[in-house]
Amino acid sequence: MTEHEERKVEKSEEHEESVMEKITETLHLSNNNHHSSSSSSDSDDDKKTASSPPGTSSFKSKVRRLFGRERPVHKVFGGGKPADVFLWRNKKISAGFLGGATAIWVLFEVVEYHFLTLLCHGLIVALAGLFLWSNASAFIHKSAPHIPEVHIPEKPVLEFATGLRNEINHAFAVLREIAAGRDLKMFLMVVGGLWILSVLGSCCDFLSLFYIIVVVLHTVPVLYEKYEDQIDSFAEKALHELKKQYAVFDAKVLSKIPRGPLRDKKKA
């Protein structure tokens, strides 16, 4: 091999080595840049996580439900058809029930129609229509109307009566405990509730009060289910403030009231 050829080979090898060194340096720089960018993005994410407000899930876990509720609103109302009506699961039935209650209230309160008069007029119209249809079916060559046999089943009536009896017995037991002077807080709550009912009874009659209750049952639960997180958060703060005020009232007033013998025995 001549000297000229050897120089060419050496130059080509040097050129290849320089190219490889440049490629290596380029790859090394790109890796460093990628690592720095990823680390900066991670730090940015950490800062965002630390500075960002708590999410919905953490918010829900921190908020205490109203009255210590642990079940969904639908389960609180029994989870059956009444709960579906109050929470507007079936909008046709809920709207029909509320519309019927509104029509009854308008008839008896606005138009001042009496219940017995309405019942008698309704029966007169129904019986007259069925009577004429039954007698005219032979002349108009149509079948007579099918009048179903109506009877009240025994099982639902017994279940309703049993449930009502249990609730009444429970109410009597609670009233007996209150009258015995064992729970001053419950006594004040019951007296306050009865006083509020007496005020409402003086402002409106029983039918208007019943219609107000129906409207409240068809509006408040569905609104609470929709905005339960915000309502529970506000209620928690309000209850905390009420407990503070009650503690002050208990320390200044209730604790100075002489206690009866039954309460002293219970404390001992």
UniProtKB/TrEMBL annotation:
Transmembrane segments: 114-133, 206-224
Pfam families, per the entry: Reticulon (PF02453)
Membrane protein topology class: Multi-pass membrane protein
Bias-annotated ranges (Polar residues): 50-60
Extent of Basic and acidic residues compositional bias: 1-25
Biased composition (Low complexity): 30-41
Subcellular location: Endoplasmic reticulum membrane
Source organism superkingdom: Eukaryota
Domain Reticulon residues, every copy: 82-268
GO CC list: endoplasmic reticulum membrane
Keywords: Endoplasmic reticulum, Membrane, Transmembrane, Transmembrane helix
PANTHER family attached to this UniProt entry: RETICULON, RETICULON-LIKE PROTEIN
Protein name, entry field: Reticulon-like protein
Organism annotation: Nicotiana attenuata
The encoding gene: RTNLB2_1
